[in-house]
Amino acid sequence: MSEDAISTATPRRVLLEVNDVTLRFGGVVALNEVNFSLYEGEILGLIGPNGAGKTTCFNVMTGVYKPTSGQVRFAGQGISGKQPHVINRIGIARTFQNIRLFPEMTALENVIVGVDARHKTSVLGALFGLPRFRRRPEEFSPDANPLLVWAQKAFGISRHRREEISGEEMAMELLRFVGIDDQANELARNLPYGYQRRLEIARALATQPKLICLDEPAAGFNPAEKEALLQLIRNIRDRGFTVLLIEHDMRLVMGVTDRIVVLEFGRKIAEGSPEEVSRDEKVIAAYLGVPADVA
Ligand SMILES: Nc1ncnc2c1ncn2[C@@H]1O[C@H](COP(=O)(O)OP(=O)(O)OP(=O)(O)O)[C@@H](O)[C@H]1O
Q1: What are 201-217's pLDDT values in tens digits?
Q2: Cα(140)–Cα(169) distance, rounded to whole angstroms?
Q3: Which of 30, 159, 164, 260 is 20 to 30 A removed from 280 (C-alpha atoms)?
Q4: Ligand 1 proximity of 46 Cβ (cutoff 6 Å)
Q5: What is the per-residue DSSP string for 90-104?
Q6: What CATH fold (topology level) applies to the domain 12-91+209-294?
Q7: pLDDT per residue over 66-122, tens digit each?
Q8: What value of ipTM does the predicted structure carry?
Q9: Residue 11 has what DSSP assignment?
Q10: Test site for ligand 1: of 32, 47, 54, 260, most ligand atoms within 8 A of the Cβ
Q11: Cβ(56) to ligand 1 under 6 A?
Q12: Domain with CATH 3.40.50.300 in the chain
């Protein structure tokens, strides 16, 4: 058997399973027996008209809500009912439809908070780090800092300080990765809108998730920004992250996803490749728009 035949025969590994999940808010059934799986290394789109249940689905997966019935499993482990910070540690990070940054912290500090969530030392280091410990962007290098290596050998440096420094390096690298390192020391509230959206992504990646959930990351973007975002999402996947994407922009969704799950009124109405989903009559009627004279 050729190597190609072997690799195509390799089964995909399920990373996340949504099993028969129902969530009721009083009389509203926001999710109705929803089932789908997410495979390691794929970009899955979650689409549907307004109010279909997409964000609620994210909220169930990330621990904001506990399903009324059903279960979410991640890497083989049941996660429904766990706290959001526990689920984040297990490996799911997210961004929000309405940007949620720390506005009075710099871009770099916002990402350091994400890195610190992973480290054993506290998040307070990022919040109250002394100014003398904060380096300017040009002082960062992707390589080890020779002075630091020497100082570690000569004097020994505390675990906290080592983590803090490596956290800063990692945060700076992530800002570079999402393309906003030129504004590393700018307060988040002063950043242009597109930078704030990218900063949210960098902060989510800083928690070193296996899965990153992006909730309408292109909202408010112009076509050029959308094109750049599409490339960034591909780069995120190429770095080994699995991506779940809620997005209304069909060009972006069709251009970047491997598979798509479609919700309508809390029910899954279709699942498949972008081509399959875009040909599905239920999807065309529900989401892509039935011509007004037919509707
Ligand atoms: N906390 C809540 N309390 C009551 N109802 C809610 C709550 N959150 C969501 N809903 C309802 O659940 C349904 C699904 O909402 P959800 O926000 O998940 O949809 P969506 O597909 O993300 O929509 P959009 O594309 O507009 O963001 C809607 O009818 C909404 O009004």
Answers
A1: 999 999 999 999 999 99
A2: 6
A3: 30
A4: no
A5: HTEEE--SS----TT
A6: Rossmann fold (3.40.50)
A7: 999 999 999 999 999 999 999 999 999 999 888 889 999 999 999 998 887 665 444
A8: 0.96
A9: P
A10: 54
A11: yes
A12: 12-91+209-294
